[in-house]
């Protein structure tokens, strides 16, 4: 081979080596840049621990009125991550009751309910879904530590807590308190009492409605679930017998109480611990540990317009005052005569965020669990005692307000359309 050809080959090899070196250096620099510029959205997506390529993905329709930010978009993606602990609990027991725990931002409360769930008989047989109102790192870490069952996290991507400068969060042009929109040149529709929206308050109803639509119609794990789903909150202490009692109640409901739409772990009167009778109890539906099936959800979903336009920021009062009465017959729930769950929160939803300022007695919850409450204590042979007339919110109540802004009502209606 001539010396010229050898020289050209050496030059070509040298140029190729230089090119490869530059590509490698560029790649390393790019990785370092991406690493140093990590955003919240990339951090919260960093634990995608299992491929979702073979999993059915249900993309929600993006609600109108909203221009999603980076965090909102990333939460949408995170909601598609499969449950954790599949290696520990690869299969769910047949006819399991799914449990949904919806939480806000009270870490000390959440730790208590998680600890109580860890002692529930049968908890390893089912799926626990934790629905977060926005994204809070401390709340997220607590849930990531759960090892006693399959657990899936979902995050409300349209929570006011993740929109700092626009609706549904606080917009610079929003009217406040009792501002006159014309005089102040601000945006907003007051409620029936003349007050404008408070984002942290309306998030309560938004989260509950978004969660219901997502759990029943939007999640791969539950959109075809034909059984009951049990809903609990971050300030509900759950007794060890709760799951076994709920299994019994859901089985007995259609046989013992045809008028019962749901089953409950606790009396509707939150301070009550039950009557202690040797009988089942049928009463109005409570908001502590309630479960219903897809048939009932379809009835509720069909009343979206009424739910979304009722001027009360509380989802439960809205249900009692306008949705249930519209069914055309009394709505009862079936429960045992001893409670299997206790509401321990001493203050409102958006208080007690700090561990040092949580609204609890000396920062502790002292709930006595008797031996009878550690095992299923409902007997299939029991008859049903029904409370025919009960106090509480009824049809005709006009609501406590806080839900007058047209934008909140329209967003609520949009949530009902996400998966249909």
UniProtKB/TrEMBL annotation:
<comment type="pathway">
    <text>Protein modification; protein glycosylation.</text>
</comment>
<keyword id="KW-0464">Manganese</keyword>
<keyword id="KW-1015">Disulfide bond</keyword>
<keyword id="KW-0735">Signal-anchor</keyword>
<dbReference type="InterPro" id="IPR007754">
    <property type="entry name" value="GlcNAc_II"/>
</dbReference>
<keyword id="KW-0479">Metal-binding</keyword>
<keyword id="KW-0808">Transferase</keyword>
<keyword id="KW-0328">Glycosyltransferase</keyword>
<dbReference type="Pfam" id="PF05060">
    <property type="entry name" value="MGAT2"/>
</dbReference>
<comment type="similarity">
    <text>Belongs to the glycosyltransferase 16 (GT16) protein family.</text>
</comment>
<keyword id="KW-0333">Golgi apparatus</keyword>
<keyword id="KW-1133">Transmembrane helix</keyword>
<feature type="region of interest" description="Disordered">
    <location>
        <begin position="172"/>
        <end position="192"/>
    </location>
</feature>
<feature type="transmembrane region" description="Helical">
    <location>
        <begin position="12"/>
        <end position="35"/>
    </location>
</feature>
<keyword id="KW-0472">Membrane</keyword>
<keyword id="KW-0812">Transmembrane</keyword>
<protein>
    <recommendedName>
        <fullName>Alpha-1,6-mannosyl-glycoprotein 2-beta-N-acetylglucosaminyltransferase</fullName>
        <ecNumber>2.4.1.143</ecNumber>
    </recommendedName>
</protein>
<feature type="compositionally biased region" description="Basic and acidic residues">
    <location>
        <begin position="173"/>
        <end position="186"/>
    </location>
</feature>
<keyword id="KW-0325">Glycoprotein</keyword>
<dbReference type="InterPro" id="IPR029044">
    <property type="entry name" value="Nucleotide-diphossugar_trans"/>
</dbReference>
